[in-house]
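Suppose you are handed a protein chain with no further information: no name, no annotation, nothing but its sequence. What can you learn? This example shows the usual starting point.
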Amino acid sequence: MQTQTIKIELLINGKKVVIGHQFLEDIVSKIPDIKENQEIFNALVLSDNPDVRESLSRLDTMGKKSIHLLLNDINQEVVDGVLSNLDFAKHISEKALMKIIDANNTKLLMTIASNIHIYTKCDVCKIAKILANHASTSVRYSLVNWRASHAVSTKILKRLVKDKDMDVAKRATEALESRN
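A reasonable first move is to predict its three-dimensional structure. Written in structure tokens, the prediction is:
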């Protein structure tokens, strides 16, 4: 993703004041999260300030192109914010999600596992199966923590009941029992 330095000007009663990146960092979360401000958000997505982009990842109002730019951000916290955002998740394609899975970033995989039910454009059963077989205990645990999503099939839960990690096995057992 190509970023750029954003020029920030504040207009007060017709008087223009140029301000720095710190002001933008402080104010971006205060810009009303409404459709009328979507153009502003789309411009700010290109900011070279990762804190600004991270703030944007928590909004509700964002264009599809901007969501995909944020999803491909070099900053892990920005990507994590997009993956956790219910409003953004409905725009994430399976191809984009698989690209993140293939990168094998444990933190991002844990976020995907914890939120697997929100990726409506994806075959979540396929994603759950991949994550259930992941080498990281943290990823497998995230998949079954807080009563596993219905995207995690009973077959996967039965396999995770036998997981070598006792916490994963216990959570999988609890999730399986809650389905009966």
